[in-house]
Amino acid sequence: MEAANFQIDSDERPGEARVSVSGELDLSAAPRLARAADKVLEGGPRRLLLDLSGLRFIDSSGLRTIIVLHQRASQEGWALEVVRPPKHLMTIFQISGMDDHLHFVEGQGRDVAR
Questions:
Q1: SS3 breakdown of the chain: % helix, strand, coil, rounded to 5?
Q2: How far is Cα 105 from Cα 26, in angstroms, rounded to an integer?
Q3: Could you tell me the CATH superfamily of domain 2-105?
Q4: pLDDT at position 108
Q5: What is the reported pTM?
Q6: Cys-Cys crosslink for 58: which of 4, 26, 62, 94, Cβ 3.0 to 4.6 Å?
Q7: How far is it, in rounded angstroms, from Cα 22 to Cα 55?
Q8: CB 33 within 8 Å of CB 21
Q9: What residue ranges do the domains of the chain occupy?
Q10: Angle at 97 between CA 80 and CA 108, to 5 degrees
């Protein structure tokens, strides 16, 4: 059932990567996002574009995974850009205050590995 509720795709090229998620980013899916990010970050990209535009739901464990990525970016010196999730999910980022800390971009962001 997990695969039907959450999908993740990643593309990478030298210096940058895109991780796109869709469906429900919840307790069962958050570790998959963390592993996918770890995999694309192994090569040391300078920029990670996290595309949340396909999400239908996010819970606190999904938010925590994104917060950890934000902290890693600050500590390790790479850029994290986040493609905005649907409007109804932005409330979670606003209530948590993360909308002030994450670098949100509109639409598809800059072209990455397309």
A1: 40, 35, 25
A2: 22
A3: STAS domain (3.30.750.24)
A4: 59
A5: 0.88
A6: 62
A7: 4
A8: yes
A9: 2-105
A10: 35
